[in-house]
Amino acid sequence: MRIVCLSAEAADICFRLGAEADVVAVSAFAPKEPAKPIVSGFSRGNTANIIRVGPELVITFSDVQAGLAEDLVRAGIPVLALNHFTVAGVADSIRLLGRVLGRAEDAEKLADTFLTRLRALTYYPAIRPRIYFEEWDQPMIAGIPWISEIIQMAGGDDIFAARSAKKSEQRVVEREEVMAANPQIILASWCGKPVEIGSICARKGFGAIDARSNS
Question: What is the residue range of 159's domain?
């Protein structure tokens, strides 16, 4: 099967399942090894570039790629749209890809290993640091549910845990909200572009929060 993975995790799962030969192209954020042709970004992609490699299946992720998935379907390309937002959902996606690839047994083992390693990291400190995770900068968007889950498992308190939701527009936060919560740690992984730490530190009022003063 000729597969195009338009999310980094889909490519990584395929590689870990030993299906690297089936993956003919990936997005720009996929693992660099094994090397595969890059045909798309994450939030943006050109259907012509994807179609050119002759995929029998394209794997997308989340509503961010919904438009691209629709364009591919209209072009007659089979699409598997993953939409996992929790830790359990990630494991389920591993199992689903395993069944699609004919590697169900390997996928079950990989999912179990994934969950076991996460459970091994679970930590219950006496004092839990306040953590702000930023998925996007303009507007500022907090992390999706699995991010919040992992922060809690690792011993931190996600300052926006109550706001974690599937849709990004439900996770938009204001600068003043972050300042009021006064996080001790800021984690950032912008979806589709490199994080600019300097621009986060330079935000008005951020110099007074604990995370900035402790950096």
Answer: 130-213
